[in-house]
């Protein structure tokens, strides 16, 4: 079995974690475990959703794959030199993972742990500068792969679904990834085309920034 | 405030619920609450993920919007005439909602509750016949809207994200929906094109069916 660990922390973004989970758990040879500092419920940014952490960092000391979600809670964690408890865990497990990956501002945690030094990487569009300040080189690409280093980063929130499909291809084969895509009926048909900074107009960006004031 | 209720039940599919949640909670005028038969943790199909139910059906008797997720657990619920406790709740709250919606096999629960009688509707591709047997008329469309009846159904799993963007447009305005799309960086770039039954080849379908035996 391949064990995928998804670390959670206070004020994470749910879809960053649940998008990849949903793809990966479709594969019978892959198990997913949600880990945290303690075995407890972890709440999203706004507190409206709680996910169960079923294991502690100590319990899961050799996962095959790590998927680090983002969320506004990352900003607190990167204030600790090295990324705090989660940063220490990432440094300790990364040497033996097949892939260490992030979604959205989860990249800030990889960077704070020292895993992105000098590498190109992606993150949520609004965190590009923070990522660069932590030693990585932001590129506005949806998924950035460094296969020799076994590091993959995905852009904001929903991009974790795209990354997870690629992960299944790398871990199993292309047919498995396509089966997962069919099983989650991922044939995206967004009603608008405003999902990237380069595509959204100024009015959309202004509204997004207004919403971020109220719901960070 | 607009209150969105997402009912959970044992063996639900996480992304069905969390995709729409992630879009809707970006809007400061929208609150989301996860409801269930009891205030407790609810587990997904495979038991690998638990989500917190913060309110009971009795607590939330007049939500503005309902989003019903699917999952293999629906098959047990529809064996009860009328869809059991969740079916009773759906019948009781629907008359005063702005929109009653479903993702994936959540449509089976709307149908079992009698809300889809004679209407076209969509669901996960593998549940089309079950949906028809419950009185709806399956169409292989990603999102099916009946605005006079205030009913919207979405196809399998990931389609709830597309539906939620449209819901935001209906509830607030198009600019709000585009801002939500930008905030979740929903600029999908799946690495393959196998996300719909009409697009997946026979080998992909065979692999998907094989996986469904192990992880239903």
Automatic annotation (TrEMBL), chains A, B:
What Gene3D superfamilies does the record point to?
Answer: 3.40.50.880
Q: Name one GO biological process term.
A: regulation of DNA-templated transcription
- Pfam families of this UniProt entry? DJ-1_PfpI
**InterPro entries in the cross-refs:** Class_I_gatase-like, DJ-1/PfpI, INH-QAR
Q: Where is the DJ-1/PfpI domain?
A: 4-169
* Protein name per Swiss-Prot or TrEMBL: DJ-1/PfpI family protein
